Amino acid sequence: MFEHRITDVFFDLDHTLWDFERNSALTFERIFKENGVSVELDDFLRIYAPINLEYWKLYRENRIDESELRFQRLRRTFDTMAATIPDKLIYELAHEYIAHLSSFTHLMPNARQVLEYLEPKYRLHIITNGFQEVQEKKLKGSNIHHFFEHVVNSEMAGVKKPDPYIFKLALDRAQVEAKHTIMIGDSLEADIIGAKTVKMQALHFNSNKEPGHDHCKTINNLIEIKSIL
Questions:
Q1: Which CATH number fits domain 20-101: 3.30.460.90, 1.10.238.10, 1.10.150.240, 1.10.486.10?
Q2: Which CATH number does 8-19+107-227 carry?
Q3: CA 83: distance to chain centroid?
Q4: 2 or 159, higher pLDDT
Q5: Nearest Cα to Cα of residue 199 among 52, 4, 60
Q6: pLDDT, average across residues 151-161
Q7: How far apart are CA 166 and CA 150, in angstroms?
């Protein structure tokens, strides 16, 4: 299936290994209760999910900064729900969301099983657009940090996926040629197209139900990796 022998497997973290949607929902449930925010959680999450993806895209493109990302995704969601939430409380919720998010540790289905399968056969690494402190807490809290030799994040790289530099930095850290690697991630734009730009091979875990494409092979469950690698 692959043109060159693979020695190193690079994973995205959020939505790929770490169950962002489930952990995020539990975080909102906690901080809404603690702050007396009376909205229907399921309605909030349904509206918030696409807005969050939209603002992450703006963040990747450097059209907004970190603080705008964290505030505006909440402001717009509450406004869409016609919920009267003052800015001061939104800033507090944005802060508490980041503070508590990494305390929840659910992984995507079969993530640990696949990592245990891959570890004896390949060197494993992470390339993530998340913030360093938060991502480290996620890895350690969910007890998967020991699987990875190198964790490269956008904060240390100074750029975000799909910028080629973050992938080149990860390859340099791992001291491996791109042709002997594969990138596995949920975002076609950030993970797949970004990796292929620097000649890495790629595997799209389509957990976001993005449209079909021919950039690389697509899987819908991590367990499928065992029949590929």
A1: 1.10.150.240
A2: 3.40.50.1000
A3: 28
A4: 159
A5: 4
A6: 94
A7: 13
> Pairing relation of β-strands 181-185 and 217-219?
unpaired
**Residue 153: in which H helix or E strand, if any?**
strand 150-153
Rounded to two decimals, what is the model's pTM?
0.92
Whether the CB-CB separation of 88 and 95 falls below 8 Å is answered with no
Q: Matching CATH topology for 8-19+107-227 and 20-101?
A: no
> 127 by DSSP, 3-state: which?
strand
Alpha-carbon span 160 to 198, nearest angstrom? 14
Strand partners, 74: none
Instruction: Tell me the pLDDT band of 211, cut-offs 50, 70 and 90.
Output: confident
The percentage of residues in the chain with a pLDDT greater than 90, rounded to a whole number, is 90
Quickly count: other Cβ atoms within 10 Å of residue 62's Cβ.
10
Tell me the pLDDT band of 179, cut-offs 50, 70 and 90: very high
Q: What is the DSSP string of 11-63?
A: E--BTTTB-HHHHHHHHHHHHHHHHT--S-HHHHHHHHHHHHHHHHHHHHTTS
Quick one: which of 85, 137, 139, 76 has its CA closest to 107?
Answer: 139
Give the domain ranges of the chain.
Answer: 8-19+107-227, 20-101
Distance in angstroms between the alpha carbons of the first and the last residue of the chain = 9
Query: Residue 109: what residue type?
Result: P
Query: Do the beta carbons of residue 217 and residue 1 sit within 8 Å?
Result: yes
Q: Please check the confidence at residue 1 and state whether its pLDDT lies above 80.
A: no
- Give the pLDDT band (50/70/90) at residue 51: very high
